[in-house]
Design a protein that fits this description.
This protein is an alpha/beta fold and 219 residues long. The chain has nine helices and five strands; from the N terminus they run H-H-H-H-H-E-E-E-H-E-H-H-E-H.
């Protein structure tokens, strides 16, 4: 929940003013070079595990100080496995909410800090309560950001999660030629398979482009 008591702005410092508050901790790296018990900067995974242990007796019995040293499940490789399991369970819940209904995809591509090309994929659909929701599905690393490469990555993602291109009713991308190209863009490749998967130029990207254009001519 965000800060709303603007009549007493000094309280805002309690939420965001200290180095150890939740807002700042959320920006920390997943792992730390020093994750020993006396470290003051154990990063997100161990901080979250410590928080859970403090508030859940069942978790506290099997993590951190309780188990033998060879069963603490906090090694770097184990941390990644736990996160992958959590991600898999989360995606399963999203897909269960989606069911076999119609949906749209929102896709954007970028480079991570190591300059690897990656594609973020989100779904937009009407859930079982009749509410329109957007859910982040995954980040997919791709060899390049050509339309064909992105299409193959989406096909692989859909196959893995038993989704069908025929159920698509919308595509939302930025205006780059590899995404929105009239003949060979990603949206065109998908519409060749499913003409009902209509393309919408991302409104956030349109706003960004408009603001950039305005600032160029601002004295």
């Amino acid at each position: 929940m965000g800060f709303s008591c603007w009549g007493k702005k000094k309280r805002l410092g309690v939420l965001v003013g200290f180095t150890e508050n939740a807002h700042n901790n959320a920006r920390l790296a997943f792992r730390s070079h020093n994750e020993s018990e006396d470290s003051i900067n154990r990063k997100n995974f161990l901080k979250l595990l410590t928080f859970l242990a403090k508030h859940n007796e069942e978790v506290d019995k099997v993590v951190l100080k309780s188990p033998p040293k060879n069963l603490k499940v906090i090694a770097h490789g184990i941390q990644k496995q736990i996160v992958r399991c959590a991600a898999s369970a989360t995606i399963d819940m999203i897909l269960d909410d989606l069911g076999h209904d119609l949906f749209s995809v929102l896709v954007d591509e970028s480079r991570d800090i190591s300059t690897k090309e990656q594609m973020a994929v989100m779904s937009r659909f009407v859930n079982k309560k009749g509410c329109v929701v957007e859910r982040f599905l995954c980040l997919v690393y791709v060899s390049n950001t050509t339309a064909l490469s992105l299409k193959e990555a989406i096909n692989s993602l859909f196959t893995r999660h038993n989704l069908s291109v025929s159920s698509l009713r919308g595509q939302d991308y930025d205006g780059a030629s590899n995404m929105s190209g009239e003949f060979n863009g990603l949206k065109s490749l998908i519409m060749k398979e499913n003409p009902c998967a209509f393309y919408v130029h991302c409104f956030a990207h349109q706003l960004q482009s408009a603001l950039i254009a305005v600032t160029k001519y601002h004295n």
